[in-house]
Amino acid sequence: MPVSSSEPRIRVLPPEAVDRIAAGEVVERPSSVVKELVENSLDAGARSVIIRLEDGGRRRIQVGDDGHGMSPAEIRLALERHATSKIRSIDDLARLRSLGFRGEALPSIAAVSRMEIVSREPSADFAWRVRVEGGRVVADQAAAGPPGTTVTVDDLFFNTPARRKYLRRPATELDRIVDLVHGLALASPGTRFRLEHGSRLLFSTSGSGDVLDAAAAVLGADTAAGLLVGADQRGEPGAPFRRLEVWAGLPSAARAGRQFQFFIVNGRAVRSDRLRAALERPYRRLLPLHRYPVAVVRLEVDPAAVDVNVHPSKQEIRLDREREVADALQALVHRLLARADLAPRVTLSPRAPALGAAGVREAAQVTPLVDGLPGRPQGQGPRQGPAAGGAEAAGPGLVREQAAPYHEAPGEAHGRPRFADLRILGQVDLTYLVAEGPEGLCIIDQHAAHERVVFEQLLGRGPGGPPPRQALAVPLTLELDAAAMERWRRHRHRLPQFGFVTEEFGPRAVMVREVPLLYRRPAGAPELLDLLDALGDAAEPDPEALEADLAQRTTAACRTAVKARDPLTADEARHLLRLLDGCRNPYTCPHGRPTLLVMRLGELERHFKRIM
Ligand SMILES: Nc1ncnc2c1ncn2[C@@H]1O[C@H](COP(=O)(O)OP(=O)(O)O)[C@@H](O)[C@H]1O
Ligand SMILES: [Mg+2]
Q1: Ligand nearest to the CA of 68
Q2: The domain containing residue 44 runs over which residues?
Q3: For the chain, what is the largest distance between any 2 Cα atoms, rounded to a whole number of angstroms?
Q4: What is the pLDDT of residues 412-460, one digit of tens each?
């Protein structure tokens, strides 16, 4: 572009251009508008917030509240860039209790939409209405309206086609808004929320102030009823946080995505990779791949210890001592899961086909367990067919339900029910142990149970501590590749704790002298190789990571474990249950399939029409 000498090369942009450029940072999509407007309502002390959308927010976003409202002069001021009632100087950020502070949202939204603000202070006789189109005020007048503020944003990005093009399908934008409002509602359980799309009510909360009520609205009553609840309070000065509260979903309530994980720091819903990892870790051994726990995590810290001024959207934060917070979160979730009864309760769905009906495997016979050898059911040879696993146990007609909720109460004695207390009645299909428990009928997948026991023994912390070792009459020589040899060198000193006694045997081989007995069978080379791989390249392997890694590669446990369709004697069955009790996580196999299903007596009674 030719530049004449009289015109300077560098020029200050006109204010409209500045506004639109800045708007791009704050207002990325409809959900950002909803976020900013609802945060303003919450900052104004709203007890009720109503959000109305049209066309996924592209045509209209309206947020109405019953907060403290604005005077006409305040409305005009609020539309100025960097005008805020929330901080007066940068020092106030260290004491921030409000959600907003940048004074940017309203002018930014006004720059890229047709916006109307109607607001009335409770003491005022009438409301005031200001209309702005693309940043220009087109109306400024008295209006009718209740106390509080209603902001309506029409035709978002009508004057920035590039942005408009970037929007996703209305359904996708709507999903984002719903996820966002879920987080806001959980962060402010004392405020009533209502989210409408066209004429449809998508979501609402009662505003009772109880997080569990809001959680029930977000997660559904069933999932919320099973939440494991715990808290970690740190009153002492110098503590990394003041209070950490967790509502953690049962493994059976896990979802295929992470949209039901909420992290709330000082009342602000935020994203944090580190906290997310801390939450998910204790679940790793309980969930199959690509399933994610649902949870609400609320953290209270000294406002001076969070920096919310990282990004204009204020969803990312910097937290002092985040690592300590994450460790505390992981420990708390771990404790909650370790103490909870995680056995899925099953229900027979009303439409369940009767046994023997089409689509259901032929009715299996119950083999009574006698002390000694259980007789194979009459006329039943070793049948082929898929080895039945726990997942199949929840086959046609069986619907999983959540387990009994567990609430952490300090000082309370905890005992999850013991497997060994179950009264074993028999074996079905040479695969499932049938037993009576305090709640009703219990079904144990013996293969999954075996896998769990063997897996924990291989981890070196099986029932009764490290596994017993067996000296090999003929030591085993194992050739290793360079990487495996390196790992062996790094971890040789810790192998005995897993039951392996080895020594160097040339540059590329080790000699194995003793192996662990995994469920009474000696382990072999595959187990040692899996273990070395899982121990990995770090000098100090993280136990949770080791467990998750081993579970993933371990078919080792499956190889050694007693297979399904093995007859068990009564003694063997009881022994298995005792071993399960010694496991840290007796409720699933290493791959996350259940070991135990419970059908409560009430469920049986319902189906036998004893109760209606
Ligand atoms: N719903 C509302 N109720 C009362 N006051 C509001 C509302 N929305 C905005 N305001 C006022 O307008 C000001 C500017 O809002 P905004 O641009 O979002 O900046 P910030 O929230 O960062 O202060 C706020 O500081 C507040 O005083
Ligand atoms: Mg704001």
Answers
A1: 1
A2: 15-90+98-177+188-199
A3: 106
A4: 334 578 899 999 999 998 889 999 998 899 999 998 998 898 888 888 8
